[in-house]
Structure formats: structure tokens, C-alpha cells
Design brief:
Coagulation Factor XIII, Chain A, domain 2; 33 strands; protein-glutamine gamma-glutamyltransferase activity; Immunoglobulin-like; globular; binds 2-acetamido-2-deoxy-beta-D-glucopyranose; alpha+beta; protein-glutamine glutaminase activity; 4-stranded antiparallel β-sheet; 4 domains; single chain
Length: 629
């Protein structure tokens, strides 16, 4: 009886106000309301009263405290309100249960890396429901500068997933705020963790939160994206990690990537086409835009360009990218360039004159990939971002967008055909050939100068040391003939300097003597890592010790020193990373580790394994395990 006459008060944030929607006072009702906060009692026998509180679908997410006002205020407790993809009226509503299982509930996923021709899946533990994660995600919202400058407006803004997604995109990188990760592409990560070493978001978010929000060193695009995915899923916003192969980073924002080479084939341009780039898609309604833009929205937490003065990017509807609607919020031109920009290449001659090489509109934005729903297959979502390559619609969209940026036309096709061919077996540790192919499809015999280089490259397109070259060879190519020139790549030449991405860029430059014309072919190859074998020993049951045998064969012609296995899995290793030093492993010998852990929950789980050593690192393996009762 007494409870029935009292008011309840809910509030979130430090300065709760009714008019901001961060505070609400209401009395008990008999049934739940669909449009306002409400509470009703369920009365079991005895002197216990259970309260059932219902929220409207459009109130701010965050930590709420609930008080009972009977003249005297009694704090009843606290709870965290999240976005709710199961609720049809919520801005993040997702219709299919299997989609929600994947994009909200799944704690493990795959991130695609490599090159267009060799796409490799790499396991990642998002771990959004691991102990402490939700509190850390809320802390991340509270550390954002918009909160410090106007806490009430910020907390009130948390009703809107567009706002929250933009805050996440700004807070995952630590440029201009107390965000989580520092980006580093220098190749030297001695005072931090090598970006390719991370395998889960849990360790990163814990390190950030446990050290007074000190920036975690170091991340690169997939790390930024994976941590953004963890935070999004934890807060109830459906999210997936997306990889684009041949992503452009357009420093002039003119939708045209201009490569500049000097006459020796050295790249002297500012723009870079990354071998791959990773960002996230978040699912939500866009009431702030015209109808038709609800659904997947791209946002990119890797710090590249400032938007409204802050390093963040998006969310922007995929549909706006596809149709070239570049005036739509947020940052459409930047994402558009990442998936669409045309590539034009110039040679700067020693006399300073610029000569255009045959540019290609096909270099950027192939194979936009994400993990499929409910399986470990790669799901190609390129069609959501762009019309088919080379289609009339694609050209129209590009022209519309280009018109927006006011640009000139590109050049014509060259006369001689040059390309690079490779063999299928390019394993790390092995020696192998790659080929320059020059075909003469003109009426005349040709004499040309050929330069063929191989150099180590990191995934963001930054070139490293040369590891093989044929310099200034003069070659006759008679009319109607095709010439093939091998370049041998040997482990002794590339082994010392190859980066953990294992990428080698091949550049072929052919200069016709008369008329003087430049042709170029470029190709990035990724060397194959050895596989990690994982074998379960015994039946996987909850709360029972389980062992797995892990092994990897050293493919190099020399020993690996300082070998480590790191093993981790949400619901499997109790939030910990299990690390084993296995010392030195000789050539063609196996590194072995039998790991023991006790699964803590039932269901489908993923055990991820990382192998590191002085010469081979960033090798990942995983095993899906069904934990039974
Ligand atoms: C990248 O890492 C190196 C070595 O650990 C460090 O000297 C450099 O300052 C870092 N760069 C950035 C941008 O933090
Ligand atoms: C070389 O040029 C001739 C004449 O145009 C053409 O018929 C032939 O197909 C070309 N060969 C190759 C391999 O492209």
C-alpha cells in the first residue's frame, strides 16, 4: 500500500534534468507504458515487493540510479540502460535474430587482411561481455570532451546512436582527447605493443582503464576498428568490422589519387593506397536525414583526417556512399574516397615535366569484406558500398561525386601491355620467382627499358627496403610477341626486413624509346604464414578443465628464437591471456604447447592463438569450440 502512493525517480549523469530527458519522476502504474518511463509492482507473498521498470525506446543510454520518494528519498539501486536491437521502436532495431546474434552478442569474430588476391581471415576476441567491459565502455563515454564541456547535453545526446557512434569513433583514437589507442605506423614499437600482436579488445580496454585513461600504445586500423566494435556491441549498437582492399587515403580530398614517381620509379607522392583498410559498420536509423538512409552506417576510428575539428569519421549511410551523395552527414567524401577514388599516376621527368601513365579506375575499392552471419565465411559487401565496378551506374555516381569536387578527365590507355605474374606458392622462408610480362600489341617492334623492383611494404602503403631488382635492362619486344622476365626473391634478401604484414610490393616500369612512353604495373603480394594447428584433448564441458594441443612448424631455413604462444577466448580463459614461452625452435622443427583452461560458460566459443618469435610474428590461429553442460 505504502509503495503504491510513492513516486519513483530515475536519473542519469551528473546534472539530471527533466527537460533533457536525463531525469524522470513518475508514480507506479498497473501496467507498463510504451512511451514513458513506468513501473509496476509484482507482489509475491510476504513483505517483499518486486518492481518492474520499463523504459521508453528513445531515452539516453547509460548508468541510471533509481530512488523512491515517500517524502523521504530512498535510493533503491542502479542499472545500466543500453540500446536495444530487440525492440522494434528502438533506433538500433534489427529484425532478424541471427543478425542480432552475430552483430550484438557474438564475442569473437574474424578480421580480413592481406591483399585482394590473398584475403586472410584473422581471429579477434571482442569480449564485450567479459568482466568489467561495460563499465569501461561507460567510462569511455564519460571521458569524451563533449561530456567535460557540457555533461547534461552529452548525457542527453546518448539517446541517439548516431551521436554515440560519433563519440566512439573519436574516443577509440587518442588524438585530441583521452581516447584509448595511439596509432603508430613507424615500424618501431619498442615502447609499446606491436599493433599486430594484439588479438583481443579486452586487454586493450583494461590497460586503458586501469592506467587512468593513459593512451595504449600502439594501434593500427584493424585494432581501432575491433575496439570500436567491442564498445558498440557492449552498448547495444549492432556492429561489424569491415575491410576494404586497396583503400585510398586521399590527402587532397579531390577523389583522385595522384601517384607521382620520379624517373627511377621512386614513389614521391603524398597519397597512399593502403593494401587494406579496416573500419566498422554500425546499424541504426537516421531520423536526422531524409527517408531511406536507415541501416548500415560506416564509421572509421583510425585517426586520418579531422572532422568538425576532431579526429573522427562517420557515421555515414552506406547508401549515401553508393549513390555519391557526398553532402550527407557525416564525412561522406572521405569514406567515398576510401572506396572509390580513381588512381592516376604521373612520372616526374628529370627536366621537371609531368607525364601521365595509364591510370586505372579499378585499383581502389575491391572486395569489401566482413565475417558472415553465423559462419566463418567471408561475406562480400562491396555491393552495399558501390555499384559494380565499371558499370554505367558506377561511372555516373563517380561523375556526380566528382562534379561535386570539380575535376578533370583522365588519360587514355597505353599501347604496350605490361603486367606482373606470380606463382601460387609464396611461403615465408622460401625462395621464388615473380615475372615481368611485356606484350607488344602494336604494329612495330619495340625497344624498351625495363626496371623491375621488389620492396618490402607495410600495409598502409609505406615502402621499406628493396629486396630484389632488375635495373635498366634493355629489351627487344618484336611485334606480336610476349616477353617474360623472372625476378628471383630470396629469403636471404627479404627475411631480415620483411614486416609482420609479410607484404612485398612489385613495381614494373617500362619505358618505350620511340615514341617515349611510360608504362607501369604494380602488384603487392603477401607471403603465406605457416598454419597453427589446434587440437582439443577431451570433451569441452563447462567448469571442467580442458586441454588443447597447439603446434606450428618453423618454415624458415634458420632457427626462431624467443617463441611465444598466447592463448585467449571469451568464456574460455576467464578474461586472461595464457602465455607460454617455448624458447628456440630449429628449422623445420615444431613449436608445441599444451594449454589448459576451464570454460566458464556454455555455448559456441572461440579459442584464439597467437604465435610470436624474433623472426616470425603476427601468426594467428583459432578453433571454434562448442561448450556443453
Ligand atoms: C612510434 O613508436 C616509436 C618507438 O616505440 C616511438 O619512438 C614513436 O614516437 C612512436 N610514434 C608515435 C606517433 O607515437
Ligand atoms: C602484338 O601486336 C600484334 C599487332 O597489333 C597483335 O596482333 C598481337 O596480338 C600482339 N601480341 C600480344 C601478345 O599482345
Amino acid at each position: 500500500k505504502k509503495v503504491h502512493n510513492s513516486n519513483l525517480c530515475l536519473s542519469t549523469g551528473p546534472l539530471p534534468k527533466e527537460q533533457s530527458g536525463t531525469k524522470s519522476t513518475f508514480s507506479l502504474t498497473d501496467s507498463a507504458s510504451k512511451t514513458a518511463w513506468s513501473a509496476s509492482t509484482t507482489s509475491p507473498p510476504g513483505n517483499v515487493v518486486s518492481l518492474s521498470v520499463s523504459s521508453p525506446p528513445d531515452v539516453p543510454i547509460g548508468l541510471y540510479s533509481l530512488t523512491l520518494d515517500q517524502g523521504q528519498k530512498v535510493k533503491l539501486g542502479e542499472f545500466v540502460l543500453l540500446f536495444n536491437p530487440w525492440c522494434a521502436k528502438d533506433a538500433v532495431y534489427m529484425e532478424e535474430e541471427r543478425d542480432r546474434q552475430e552483430y550484438v552478442l557474438s564475442q569473437a569474430g574474424l578480421i580480413y587482411k592481406g591483399t585482394t588476391k590473398r584475403i586472410k581471415a584473422s581471429p579477434w576476441t571482442f569480449g564485450q561481455f567479459e568482466p568489467g567491459m561495460l563499465d569501461i565502455c561507460l567510462k569511455l563515454l564519460d571521458e569524451n570532451p563533449k561530456y567535460s564541456s557540457d555533461a547534461d547535453a552529452d548525457c542527453s545526446g546518448r539517446r541517439n546512436p548516431v551521436y554515440v557512434t560519433r563519440v566512439i569513433s573519436a574516443m577509440i583514437n587518442s588524438n585530441d582527447d583521452k581516447g584509448v589507442l595511439v596509432g603508430n605506423w613507424s615500424g618501431d614499437y619498442d615502447d609499446g605493443v606491436r599493433p599486430s600482436h594484439w588479438t583481443d579488445s579486452v586487454a586493450i580496454l583494461h590497460q586503458w582503464a586501469d592506467n587512468c585513461c593513459q593512451r595504449v600504445r600502439y594501434g593500427q586500423c584493424w585494432v581501432f576498428a575491433a575496439v570500436a566494435c567491442t564498445v558498440s556491441r557492449a552498448l547495444g549498437i549492432p556492429c561489424r568490422v569491415v575491410t576494404n582492399f586497396g583503400s585510398a587515403h586521399d590527402t587532397n580530398s579531390n577523389l583522385l589519387i595522384e601517384f607521382l614517381y620520379d624517373e627511377d620509379g621512386n614513389d614521391i607522392s603524398d597519397d597512399s593506397v593502403w593494401n587494406f583498410h579496416v573500419w566498422v559498420d554500425n546499424w541504426m536509423a537516421r531520423p536526422d536525414l531524409d527517408a531511406g538512409y536507415d541501416g548500415w552506417q560506416a564509421s572509421d576510428p583510425t585517426p586520418q583526417e579531422k572532422s568538425e575539428g576532431v579526429f573522427c569519421c562517420g557515421p555515414v549511410p552506406l547508401k549515401a556512399i553508393k549513390e555519391g551523395e557526398l553532402n550527407l552527414k557525416y564525412d561522406a567524401p572521405f569514406v567515398f574516397a576510401e572506396v572509390n577514388a580513381d588512381v592516376v599516376e604521373y612520372v616526374k621527368l628529370t627536366n621537371g615535366r609531368m607525364v601521365k601513365m595509364g591510370g586505372s579506375s579499378m585499383d581502389v575499392g575491391h572486395f569489401i569484406s566482413t565475417k558472415a552471419v553465423g559462419s566463418d565465411e567471408r561475406h562480400d559487401i562491396t555491393h552495399l558500398y558501390k555499384h559494380p565496378e565499371g558499370s554505367l551506374q558506377e561511372r555516373e555516381v563517380y561523375e556526380r561525386a566528382k562534379h561535386h569536387n570539380d575535376l578533370q578527365q583522365k588519360g587514355q590507355e597505353p599501347g604496350l601491355k605490361v603486367k606482373i605474374k606470380v606463382s601460387p606458392d609464396m611461403d615465408i622462408g622460401a625462395d621464388f620467382d615473380v615475372f615481368a610480362v611485356i606484350a607488344n600489341n602494336t604494329e612495330a617492334d619495340k625497344t624498351c627499358r625495363v626496371m623491375f623492383y621488389a620492396r618490402i611494404v607495410s600495409y598502409d602503403g609505406k615502402p621499406g627496403a628493396n629486396c630484389g631488382f632488375i635495373e635498366d635492362l634493355t629489351m627487344e619486344v618484336p611485334t606480336g610477341k610476349e616477353k617474360r622476365l623472372p625476378l628471383r626473391l630470396e629469403y636471404v634478401d627479404y627475411g631480415d626486413t620483411i614486416k609482420s604484414d609479410r607484404l612485398i610490393q612489385l613495381v614494373l616500369i617500362v619505358i618505350e624509346s620511340s615514341p617515349r612512353e611510360f608504362h607501369k604495373a604494380k602488384r603487392t603480394i603477401v607471403l603465406e604464414n605457416p598454419d597453427i594447428a589446434i587440437k582439443l584433448l577431451g570433451e569441452p564441458r563447462v567448469n571442467q578443465k580442458l586441454s588443447a594441443q597447439i603446434s606450428l612448424e618453423n618454415p624458415l631455413p634458420e632457427p626462431l628464437q624467443n617463441c611465444f604462444f598466447s592463448v585467449m577466448g571469451a568464456g574460455l580463459t576467464d578474461g586472461k591471456i595464457l602465455i607460454q614461452n617455448v624458447g628456440t625452435v630449429g628449422p623445420k622443427q615444431e613449436a608445441k604447447y599444451t594449454v589448459e583452461f576451464t570454460p566458464t560458460s556454455i555455448g559456441s566459443r572461440t579459442l584464439t592463438v597467437d604465435f610470436d618469435s624474433d623472426k616470425l610474428s603476427n601468426i594467428k590461429g583459432y578453433l571454434n569450440i562448442e561448450i556443453k553442460e
